[in-house]
């Protein structure tokens, strides 16, 4: 439908149905443009797409939210490409877009933030969890989920709780991985612990790369391994680790929330995948139980049914945050209009005396209301499916909290919670918030974990001495990096690291 007709229709409907409930409509446009960039073919992207579409339908069908103004959403699939993400951002900006939701990963967010900052278009991301993105360098970037900063503090407190002093960090060598691990290092130092070995993986690591990396990890002192990566490579790492017998008792694997995201989205996982991840600890962004959340969860199978060829998939915590991000933006746009904001753009070229040359830079527009919209976003105070939403002065969501999850059997079990308020506890965050904060070590508790090797015996520090490492090395022929491994590991399973199931296909 042509835009003018849509506008006429919206205003017309509004006149009929609003019955004077809404004031100063004349200052509000019928439609505002919002862009969304995500990667449909990922655990997070496919779930977020459904959530965002549902949210926009809900927002647009509720005339009390924006006094009749509709949000016109344009979605783009960046297919995990940083370059496409940039091109799409520029396309949105040429279309008078007042805000952008997305993009998928922290790496792309770093680049896109530079564009959106320059053109004063707020960029909301429920996903770019890289702690470095909250720096003052990117004023128009707003994170609408929990920062990895808190997840890393949670991991450091888990390490400290069990009395371990050193960890090995296996991570993807990009902004997301590196900055996450820097935050982990800082958090560990606060607990007088440290990262004793860093094992960066290339972002497109092959199984051979991963095998080489894990062999080096196996030869280090620490058996406490923190795995901070993306979903698909993460499963490959755990599969190779299983093959190398690094999933035996004595090892500890703490996976950041990429693993809980897979468990939530794709459960039940194939049994060979579950075999690979037994005993792993992972974290999940905590969202309290509520009527609103339960209502959304009950709609989920309807929302996913029939929308995709591969059958339905589960809702993960990013899906909940994606849904709330749209509502948060809608409330912010309402505040923006209440503060007298209007949607106007000025040409970037004219304001910077930049010569476009053969590039078509005329399409670049600065959003004049950008600062006001940003201010409005940070002022929102609402309750969504993820619980109460409000920003702290350092632009984090209030009450950061995670669930601590232990993968066992055919599923997983919550063994406790971590809150910024009281550290580790078996009590739910809502209960903790009613008590005074208490971080005394006597108060830190989680239920017992079943560790790799199906043991409830807590892996000890410095369990492995040189002798064990030598035996381990000899048993696996690790000195021979590319040749076939003749140790007992190679015969113990038919699929091995070269025959992992379809889950790890990229
Ligand atoms: C628009 O109406 C809201 C209340 O509905 C009011 O707070 C605001 O001041 C009004 N804005 C203008 C520009 O009149
Ligand atoms: C987390 O806790 C620290 C220390 O108690 C506090 O300074 C900070 O504001 C908290 N952050 C959030 C987002 O609640
Ligand atoms: C914190 O918890 C510990 C152990 O449960 C208790 O002994 C202590 O009194 C608590 N401190 C406060 C301030 O409540």
Automatic annotation (TrEMBL):
InterPro entries, A to Z: ANF_lig-bd_rcpt, GABAb_receptor_plant_PBP1, Ionotropic_Glu_rcpt, Peripla_BP_I
A cellular component term, taken from the record's GO annotations: membrane
Annotated signal sequence range: 1-20
Pfam families given in the database record: ANF_receptor
Protein name per UniProt: Receptor ligand binding region domain-containing protein
Annotated region (Disordered), positions in chain: 480-506
Domain named Receptor ligand binding region: residues: 49-409
Keywords linked to the UniProt accession: Membrane, Signal, Transmembrane, Transmembrane helix
Compartment(s): Membrane
Chain intervals with Low complexity compositional bias: 491-506
Organism: Fagus sylvatica
């Amino acid at each position: 439908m042509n835009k003018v007709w849509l506008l006429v229709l919206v205003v017309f409907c509004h006149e009929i149905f609003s019955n004077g409930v809404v004031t100063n409509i004349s200052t509000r446009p019928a439609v505002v443009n919002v862009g969304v960039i995500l990667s449909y073919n990922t655990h997070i992207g496919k779930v977020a797409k459904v959530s965002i579409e549902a949210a926009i339908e809900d927002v647009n069908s509720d005339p009390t939210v924006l006094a009749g103004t509709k949000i016109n959403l344009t979605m783009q699939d960046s297919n995990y490409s940083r370059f496409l993400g940039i091109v799409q951002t520029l396309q949105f900006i040429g279309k008078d877009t007042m805000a952008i939701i997305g993009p998928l990963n922290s790496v792309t967010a770093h680049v896109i933030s530079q564009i959106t900052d320059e053109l004063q278009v707020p960029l909301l991301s429920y996903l770019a969890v890289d702690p470095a993105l909250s720096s003052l360098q990117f004023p128009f970037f707003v994170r609408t989920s929990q920062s990895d900063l808190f997840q890393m503090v949670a991991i450091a407190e888990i390490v400290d709780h069990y009395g371990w002093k050193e960890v090995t960090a296996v991570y993807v060598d990009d902004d997301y991985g590196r900055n996450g691990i820097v935050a982990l290092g800082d958090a560990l130092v606060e607990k007088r612990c440290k990262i004793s070995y860093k094992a960066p993986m290339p972002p497109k690591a092959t199984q051979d790369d991963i095998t080489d990396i894990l062999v080096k990890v196996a030869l280090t002192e620490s058996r406490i391994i923190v795995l901070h990566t993306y979903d698909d490579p993460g499963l490959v790492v755990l599969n190779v680790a299983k093959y190398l017998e690094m999933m035996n008792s004595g090892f500890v694997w703490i996976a950041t929330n990429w693993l809980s995201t897979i468990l939530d989205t794709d459960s039940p996982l194939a049994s060979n995948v579950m075999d690979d991840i037994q005993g792993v600890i992972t974290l999940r962004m905590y969202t309290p139980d509520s009527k609103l959340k339960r209502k959304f969860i009950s709609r989920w199978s309807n929302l996913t049914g029939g929308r995709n060829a591969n059958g339905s998939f589960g809702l993960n915590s990013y899906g909940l945050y994606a849904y709330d991000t749209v509502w948060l933006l809608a409330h912010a746009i309402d505040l923006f209009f209440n503060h007298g904001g209007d949607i106007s753009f000025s040409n970037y070229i004219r304001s910077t005396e930049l010569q476009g040359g053969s590039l078509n830079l005329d399409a670049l527009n600065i959003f004049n209301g950008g600062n006001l919209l940003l201010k409005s976003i940070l002022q929102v105070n609402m309750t969504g499916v993820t619980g109460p939403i409000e920003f702290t002065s350092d632009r984090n969501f209030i009450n950061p909290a995670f669930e601590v999850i232990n993968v066992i059997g055919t599923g997983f079990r919550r063994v406790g919670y971590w809150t910024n308020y009281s550290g580790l506890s078996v009590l739910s965050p809502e209960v903790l918030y009613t008590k005074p904060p208490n971080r005394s070590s006597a108060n830190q508790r989680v239920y017992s974990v079943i560790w790799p090797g199906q043991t409830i015996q807590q892996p000890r520090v410095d369990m492995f001495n040189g002798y064990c490492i030598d035996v381990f090395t000899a048993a696996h022929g690790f000195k021979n990096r590319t040749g076939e491994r003749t140790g007992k590991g190679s015969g113990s399973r038919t699929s091995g690291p070269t025959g992992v199931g379809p889950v790890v296909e990229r």
